[in-house]
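Quick check before the chapter quiz. The format below is the same one you will see on the exam, so make sure you can read both the input and the output lines.
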Amino acid sequence: MTTARHQQICLEATAYYHCISRCVRRAFLCGLDEESGVSYEHRRSWVEDRLFALAKVFCIDLCAYAIMSNHYHLVLHINKAKADSLSDNNVIDRWLTFHNPPVLIQRYLRGDICTQTEYSAVSSIIQGWRQRLYSISWFMRLLNQFIATEANKEDGCSGHFWEGRFKSQALLDDKALAAAMAYVDLNPVRAGIAKTPETSDFTSIKYRLNNLRKPKASVTYLYPFMSQSSDRLEGIPLHLADYLEFLDWIGRHFHEGKTGQIAHDTPPILKRLGLNSLSWFRKYKQFEKGCMIGTKSSMKACLPLMGRKRISGIQLSMN
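Here is the expected output.
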């Protein structure tokens, strides 16, 4: 049975979520269709450009992404505080980036609103838009609708392009966040289409590393790691160097077929995050199952917040 979205996305439980969208049947999002010989590689840029455009407007931070041949992965951070701090005019400007203004808003922008009733109606509209600016459902809707429309136009067809609604998993603690980001960034390596994370095209890890090589490193569209800027009070609660070491270790072991084995040079990040190497590799294979990821204690604490009675998802070990 499908789980209600409000039981999957709950700000009181966590601000971080892993989202996945897959194409219907044999439709190609990107990549090469070997049967027809048609290449859809150019669509990866569609998805990436649209992601960056949405991240610039929405109060939803892009932590990680990977654009594959028939699906894509995202790790998103809901920034409600940012949305709440926006002025009314800023909310209007952001929302109208992707939408046409209703007549009442047009009149408001021209200064033609006179009555208290009209002001109340305008205020209600703006408040609704403010809430949408930190809604993952609206973020994913504007992403998927755009890609589906462009793909159907290019294919000369109509109908469903995506396999139903997107899937989301709540990332309940720092361990779950690190695990999900690594899972996303290593998708091309796991699929055998890239040998290393830094050669994985259209992934957040390659985008970050490419920006670090520039004279003035600036990952404009991605949520930064706390260590990337000393003057920031917010960001991904991990050090970039530790994450890269963690990512390299996981990818190296998985790629060499050493699933379930512990390397003698296991990096310190595993101990600091409390990840158990043996159990991690077992969970890694089933990472997309369930709607929550976290330690057992995190899951239990969030059940009442998400309106659930039973734990359903990936439990990460504490040791």
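If your answer matched, good. Residues 255-270 have pLDDT under 50 and may be disordered.
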